[in-house]
Each structure stands twice: as C-alpha cells, then as structure tokens.
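Async update (no meeting this week)

Hi team, since we skipped the sync, here's where things stand on the single-chain job. The sequence we agreed to prioritize is pasted below, unchanged from the tracker. I ran it this morning and attached the output directly underneath so nobody has to dig for it. Comments welcome in thread, and please keep replies under the output.
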Amino acid sequence: MFDPADDVSLGPQRVAGERRARYSARMKSASLPAVSVEPGVRAELDAALEDGESMAEFIEAAVIERLARRRQARKAFLARGMASLEESLQSGKVHSLEDVERMLRERADEAVRRFRDRDDAAA
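Output:
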C-alpha cells in the first residue's frame, strides 16, 4: 500500500520514470468526491499541469502531499506538548485549572476592551 509519508515530494510534481509506472499500476479502488471551484481556479489548475499530467494525477498528488504535511504537523504538535509536559514536571512549574481559566478570561476581557476602545475612537 502506498504511504504518503514515504515520499512527501510528490506534491504537484509527477512521479517520474519507472517509479511512476509502478505507482500507476497499483489498483485504485476508492474515489474522492467531485469538487466545484471558481472558473479562475480551474484555469490556473489547467495551466499548472505538466505535459502528459492529468488533472486527476495532479489532484491525487496534492491530496497525498497535504496528508503527509498534516500528519507531520500533528506529530510535531504532540512532540511539543510532550516536551512542555516534561519541562513542567522537571521544573515543578504547573498552573491549576482555575489559574489557567482566570488568565484566559483576563486576556479575553482585555481583547474585548481594546476592540471597544478602537470602535469608540473611530466613531
């Protein structure tokens, strides 16, 4: 089975030579839904296609690349969270739920005040 993480360089570029032949020969048994776009987007897509590249190939490669990037972003997010947890446990600096809620409420209240002040100044 093809794993997008194996080759994140697929993107909008075509898979070349022998590798492309092996990839295309694999059986594809799932479909993506049709997507409606503005005519300008369709024109840009048509202009971006390489010689011999079909729109379906381009879209498939874009989806595969996006999935790989999303998986990598999720992995990085979890790694940052685990590192933060480890740092908190090592340093002993932790905040209670009540403290976090209070800090967030204060930040939200301040943002609302700034927004209202900006509107009052513009009036």
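Quick observations from my side:
The chain is about 65% helix and 0% strand.
The longest helix spans residues 55-91.
Reply here if anything looks off.
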